[in-house]
Give the backbone structure.
Amino acid sequence: MTTAILLGATGLVGSELLSLLCEDASYSRVVSIARRASGKSHDKLDERVIDLADEAAIAQAAEGDVLFSCLGTTKKKAGSEAAQYEVDVAIPLRVAKAARKNGTSTYAVVSAVGADARSSLFYNRIKGELDDAVQALGFERVRILRPSILVGERAEHRPMEALGATLSKGLAFIPGLRKYRPIPARVVAMGLLAATMDPTPGTRIHEADALFSLGGSA
């Protein structure tokens, strides 16, 4: 049986993925690595509430077959670009390195549409930096999902994001801009599961528009 490692279980996509993993017969154990408990309970769930700057604690917790990385924040919530970088890049990379050292073979990450390490936009640049960095760690399989605006029930209210999601719904009907339409967090979570079922070695990048089909919501 297979053990999943989940980083970001309390977030929008991560919380959806946690439920899916616990109910998926393909996984016998789900290790959640987080700074706070998810509030969920399941026979499969092994929650590791740790300091995500503690490399020794991460190394002890990050043991499994497939690592799912769903951690992310905003500059406003983090407080600064440096703090956002810590959450969006440094912590996920720290966990990925530990998991790979422990023998994890597959890595799947929620990136973002437009992710590019050479971008002049800070958010796109840091997402691209993480995408590039994890590919250099030697995982047998890397699956990168790049959704547009995520929609779903968040623990915190993000009015500008909600407004953006509402306004961008019309993009589904504009040729060339369809990929930027909002996508439900559950569809992305289902896409992560589907992507990791692909046994093909190497990296597969799933761009925004393709995620609807990948997650079973064409």
User: Anything to note?
Assistant: The chain has one domain: 2-154+184-207.
